[in-house]
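Quick one:
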Amino acid sequence: SLPVIESLPVALTVTAPASSTFSTVHLDSSPVIGTTWTGITILPRDSDDLAISTRSDAFEISFSKQRKTSGLAEQLDAACRTEWVGSRNGYEGACIVPDNEGEAGDWQLEATLDGEPFFSTVVETQCDEGHYQDDGVCHVCPKGAVCDLTGLKLSTLMPKEGYWRVNTESAVLYACPLAAGCTDRPQDEPCAKGHIGVKCALC
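Output:
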């Protein structure tokens, strides 16, 4: 009898370890105090700069800020985690940003591979709605300010209709004695057309 030759399909999967040289970190949004920041993606690649399609628990992220309290250095840490997302061949990171006395401003994001840092950058953490940032700290918005957005700073505070402030360095807003003087103002102008002076009280 003749020998029978049968062809069998064989699929080989070769998995190489991730490389800190070619793996990348992408930031898709800005963190906000007191919320969970989910705009972090890690795309692992091997030493040949090829995408890795299998999960590994070797990647971790941390998010922290150094501050001084009564002359002593203190580190604030967010609770961070990474989760493998097969459809993206990568990890999605999330950090719960604490609201420690409104400490916004510059925070440090670090990603590690097998415990060794391979990515580090400073990320500006914003204040939530109803607050504005000044010198890295969140403050409750003053009466008369428009504060329905995240990421406001003292310099970007806008007075509501009927309110006025001295300049962009002041957090004090004053009610205008003449409503017309502080209504329908051109953008970046303290007073309505035809009105000038303190609280836009002069015509």
